[in-house]
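One such given next:
>
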Amino acid sequence: MRFNALFIQFHGSDLLNVYFGGELADYLIHFTNYQNPNGCGDQSWPQYDTSSRSLLTFWDGLIPITITSDTFRQDAMNVLVNVSLTHPFP
């Protein structure tokens, strides 16, 4: 589900996009049948890996689906990795 500037995204908001006819519904159905979300839309959903960090991103506007780079949480992830390596769980 998309929100305008008056609303914020919340955890689970993508479920509305899946189960109420949004763009994610086709990707979910294709993934369920073929173990691959690609083949149903114009945009190919890239497999995530730590070198490219590519994400399929849903936007409002003329180009609603694009590939973006997953860098918005890189600093926080680095902190978590360093803490877990410094203080491993027993």
Summary: Residues 1-5 have pLDDT under 50 and may be disordered. Residues 13-86 form one domain. Residues 74-86 form the longest helix (13 residues).
